[in-house]
Every structure is written in structure tokens, then in C-alpha cells.
Amino acid sequence: MARCDMPREVFTALSDLMADYTYAVDNRRSGEDVAVLFTDDAVIDFSDVAFPRMEGKDEILAFYNGLVENMAWEFHMPANVRSDSWDGEVGAITAYVIGMGRPKQGDGVEVQVRYRMECVQQGDAWKCRHFSLKAMMPVG
Amino acid sequence: MTQMPQDVRNAIQDVMVEYAYAVDALSDIDNLLNLFTDDAQVDMTAIGLPMMYGRGDIKKFFDTVFETMSHHFHFMSNYRPESWDGTVGAMTSYVIGMGRANDGNTVTVQVKYRMECLEQDGTWKCRHYTITPMMPLPGSLTEIHGEA
Cβ A96–B75 below 8 Å, yes or no? Predict the structure, then answer.
């Protein structure tokens, strides 16, 4: 984990949230399975990989419902998980991710990216309030 | 071996992850060098790259790598404790390493890292690092990084 004084249990909770995100995206069951992992005012910024920037739960839900409708296969595997910041309430982690997908029509795609998830605890659950991607290898 | 304590295991795994981030940033050589002891040995001969003795050799090698490469991606998994004597611990991990050079040449390798680490002034550092190939190596590896 390293880099900051994030408590181990917070690091584990954030790592679990990232894993939950990949499972929710890859099972392609419902956009709501993904959206529930985010705060209502969350921002998702995929602009570094030529995907949208989304603000708020409605835009997030619409994007992931679109993936459910259009994708036949998805596979997102994180590694190199590392704590990035911790101020006592808000924690951020980064991870390397190999992402693969094949739409119902058209060619598949594979990317090598870095995730950054900034998260807060709401009730008993940790939720992501800012999620961004950075391309690590050329995309496309 | 004596069982490696969990905090030591976490610390050495952190060194390995920090190494990936430092190598893949392709900038700030000091951030990378600070992960190694002054007298660290880095043995990349099994993949056709140099044997390095000390931070001077390591800096020389990675200065060239940082100048040559436009993209890096080292994806680690299968962390495993290998030895622990109460002071020095070694762990291994599997790594998929990808790179793209400024001239457009690309390389992908599947290798195993071994890092032997110890604590110096409250910070864990690597004193011996080896890379072992786990799948046949592509010719582009030595085209990009040169011969040992």
C-alpha cells in the first residue's frame, strides 16, 4: 500500500470496493449494480481514454446501462494496488488494470490503464466519489 | 524458513509495487533509486540485459530506459514469500511487462521478479533483484534495451 498513512482496514475496504466495481461491470447484469458503488454526486472521468466524463448518478447509470446493452464480454483485472492519499475521511487508491471487452457487434478492445478511486464512507459502506482512468499503453 | 511476519510481507510487497510505479513513471530516477540499497545488485542477465552493481550502474541503465521509452506497464501478481532470516526477506512475483519505445517498437514479457530486501533506517529497500523469464522472450527486448 505505502505512500501515505492510510489505515490498513481503509486500504482493504477501498481495494474491496475496486474489486466490487470490476465484478459489477463484468457481470453485465445491470447499470444499477455499478452505480450503487458511487456517491450520488460522483464524478467519473474517462476522458484520457476517449470515453465520457460523467457527473452524478443519472449520467453514471446511463453509461453503464449502455455497456450492459452493448457488451457481450468484459474482463477487468486490477493489480499493483497502492494507497494514494488519506486525510482521515477521504481515501484514494490507485491500481493498474488490464481491461478487455468484446461488444455484441464489432471488434474487441484491450487496454492497460491505471485506475484512481477517491472514496468516502457513507453509513457502513464505502463509496467512490471520484474515479479516473489514465492510459498506460497506447489505446486503440 | 522461519515464517515471514505479515508486516514484513506487506513491506516487501510494497517495495515491489513502488518499483513498478517508479519504473513506469519514466521520470524521477531518484524515486526509483531510493528503493535500492547503495550496494544493491540487479541481475537482469537471464533476460539478456545487464548485471548491475550499485546505484551508479542502476542509474546508468534506467536513465537510458527513461530516455528511450514512451510507455511502460508492469503488472504484478502472485506475490510469494521465499525466505526470511529475521533481518533479510525475499519475495517473488509474476509480472507481465509491456513497453513502447519512442521509435514505436513494442515489447511484452512474462517474467518472475525476486527481490531480497531489508530495513534501513525505518525504510525497506531492495538489496538484490533478479528477473527470470517465464515465457520465451521477444527479440524486441534487446532491440529496445540493448545487449547485456
Answer: yes
pTM of the model: 0.92
| Contact (CB, 8 A) for B73 and A136 | yes
The answer as to CATH 3.10.450.50 being correct for domain A8-135 is yes
Name which of A26, A18, A28, A41 is nearest A126 in CA terms: A18
Q: Chain A interface, mutation test: which of B24, B73, B93, B95, most A Cβ atoms within 10 Å? A: B73
In chain B, where the domains are located? 6-145
From A65's Cα to the closest Cα of chain B, the distance in A is: 29
Class of domain B6-145: alpha beta
Considering only alpha carbons, which residue of chain B is nearest residue A77? B75
Q: Which residues of chain A have pLDDT under 50?
A: none
Which regions of chain B does DSSP assign to beta strands (E)?
36-43, 51-53, 69-84, 88-101, 106-120, 123-133
Query: How much is the ipTM here?
Result: 0.89
State how far the Cα of A46 lies from the Cα of A56, in Å rounded to an integer.
14
